[in-house]
Amino acid sequence: MHKVGIKKMISKFDIKLEKIIFIFHEWIQKDIIPEHLTIDVTDYKHIPDGPGIMLITHEGNISIDFENNQVGLLYMRKQPLCKTQLENIIKIKSILNFLVNELENHKDLKGKLKFKENYKIILNDRLYFPNNDSSKEILISIIEKVFQGMKLSIINSSLNSRLTIDIQE
Amino acid sequence: MENWKEKLNNKISNELKIEINEFESQMELMRRGKIDPRIFAETRLRRGVYGQRYDNGQRDDGRQLRRLDYPAGDLMKGPDTYWDAPGMLRIKIPFGAVNQEQLIMMADLAEEYADGVLHVTTRQDIQYHYVHIDDMPDIMRRLASVGITTKEACGNVVRNVTACPIAGVCKDESFDVTPYSSALTEFLLGHPDCQDFGRKFKISFSGCYEHACGLVNMHDLGVLAKIKENNGIKKKGFKLFVGGGLGAVAHPAKVFSEFIPEEELLPIAQAIGRVFARLGEKKNRAKARVKFLVAKLGIDEFVKIVMKERAILPHDIRWISYLDKLPAYGEIAKHNPSDFHEKIADPQFNNWLSTNIYFQSQRGYSTITISLPLGDLSSHQTRKLAEIAKEFVGNSIRLNVEQNIVLRWVPNGDLYKIYQKLEKIGLANPGAGTIIDVTSCPGTDTCKLGIASSRGLAGELRTQLAIKSFEMDEAIKGLRIKVSGCFNSCGQHHIADIGFYGNSRTKKGFKIPHFQVVLGGQWNENGGSYGMAMGAVPSQKIPEVVTKITETYIKERNEVNERFQDFIERVGKLYIKSLIEEFMNIPEYEDDKSYYSDWGDPREFSLKDMGIGECAGEIVTREEFELQTAEREVFEAQLEYDNKNYILANKKSYNAMLQAARALIRIEFYDVPNNPKAIVNEFQKRFFETKKFYDKYAKGKFGRYLINRFNDKSEIVNEDNARQYVEESQLFIEAAHSCYAKITSGEV
Ligand code: SF4
How far is CA B7 from CA B49, B146, B151, B747, in A? Predict the structure, then answer.
């Protein structure tokens, strides 16, 4: 149930991706993410449709993600978090926004990196949330509560891809 | 709610189901502290579950050495390896052949359990990184549901059997080695004669000698297709090589036999396994590969011993049963052949066409190489690639030893269409098999033994060389670069034209990442000869070294077609050293800090993150292994008893005793038949009557548990006697452990 990822889209990205490697290492040194055991930084910038730069923590993976050429900050939860899916998604969103804030306000990125209020929610568990109508129904009812007033659309997908919902202002 | 075990119950073969359930039990025993971490480490390695950097609970963050306090506390999954630390899973892909369904499954698993990336290795495996051990059984089940096993992907066993990725479509092969590599894979997987090696054992097949695809010259067992003609009759068979290997000390293989007929392949491989298990080094892992045994005995003596062993092997029907199916073997093209006529005015496409296409021996078809930077592709790319494969080639997909993917049986008329589709997903990189297509081991990114960042360097070289590739001389373009993060040479630097392996130097107390420059190795002729070390250069200067050496080669070669290897040999080590010396100077730390950190890693360079490698596996004796298996069985018996399955509890506890007794008997009588009567008779004769199995106080009591159980023919099993059986079995196994300890200490 806990395996949920939320990606917040980036609207302005005027930096070299290498800069993020520095910043993620800095986050490890300063231990800035509460309740997370930060482990390492991986560099996947050579994969065009991939996770870019990733900060590995025990609890979740954090990456500047480039899936479908859409750049955003993705937080993918790996360890159990809350009792209900609603609480989970609220909590994951708040972790993500904490990270977004850290990036936007980083002294080297100010004005060069901006996020927009567009999200993608990925249910990363094909057992408990297969990509089918009943999972969609459950997920949409939860997301409507967390992202009130925003436009939701299911991302049509093929070949067993995960249930993913696009959320726009 | 249903779990993967229940959900996939009907989709997994019984054999794999048992395997995975057993591994799960072993994990549970480890959690309860009931297995020696050494034995558990080797157990998980034999399931492909590998350690990763930082699993020893510490990491240098560039300022200080930090403790990584994993939530599971002191629970370990091997010596000095924390349970909760992310690890690697290696998935065996025999001869690199995968189908669409498997690709999709591997993409799913990369997303759900790893970091969303599939990594293709230099031995045609796939690896996931940053996986939690608790997820391994589910991953294994899901892989098993599409016919993939991780069994024996690591550890001191027969590793993935590799083969030419163009076998069956190659213009130069003697014949298609695919069905033979498949038969040998199946035959040796879990084979009892291959469970007691001191180190890993790697096998490779090639269809011809001239090209490099299979690299038979650098394997423990290299199998080269050969046809012998006798009185006008053609006979298929193989030239066999043994004792090749890279590692810190590279050994070219020795010829075991110029020709063995096809029906002798499996039995001779089995005999080699038995000889290696019996005579190979077990204590000193640095000397335990088969190459050292061959060197110690001499090739003639080694062959003699193996052939003697071959002569006494009990016949096994599997040796030849697969041969009957060979005539029917063959890949079926998804589409009809077609010709490639049009001139397409797309320079990118034409560039790709010049390096990534192999026109097959079957007219009208091509094989495409998808060049993967650093062997990586994302789950999204993988899924889209499966779609492309579905449309154009069906299941004709293979991985190659240069960390790329190969699509076979593409109709030539579809080449531009498929290129455009690959281009859209970032998989139409040109330069496959050229200087741009740099191969690298994981190095300091994830490997515990890594000294320098091989992936960082390989990525940088790829980027810089790709920019220059348009104006590059063809002779430079055709060179190969391979990088290893340390001397262990997983990146195969010995057989590259230009190879590098990581090391370090110190200046005024600061460490500086370096790479040793190794030149003149030969990729052709199956990794025909190894390169020479020329000197260590700071990591930051390696791209300049590449430019200097390649430019000098073009300027100073004797004639236009002097090969790079010949050039290096002619000009000699001293001259090359003089060329690269200028790059060896290191500025003071205060003057230029860039030298003091590695590619793609801004931390100040240090060696503090290095750990104890698992490449060599743990040296665990066969007896320890078998006793541990007995231990697991009695644990499972206990669980069955708790679930009120008394009949199963009885059966498992009895099997556990038999297993433990057999482990002891095999010290003296290796081929003891695996049936209760033979085991109990031998146990009685060798251990009970000789009092070797006696306990100081209980005397023969524990041994009698087995003998009595064997003689007890009553079929009634109830709660009371089931509990008694389980308890007796537990005591018997304890006694077997102490008997084994007495034997190894020389007490009995
Ligand atoms: S060569 Fe060294 S660094 Fe590279 S994977 Fe092998 S042991 Fe690790």
Answer: 23, 14, 21, 51
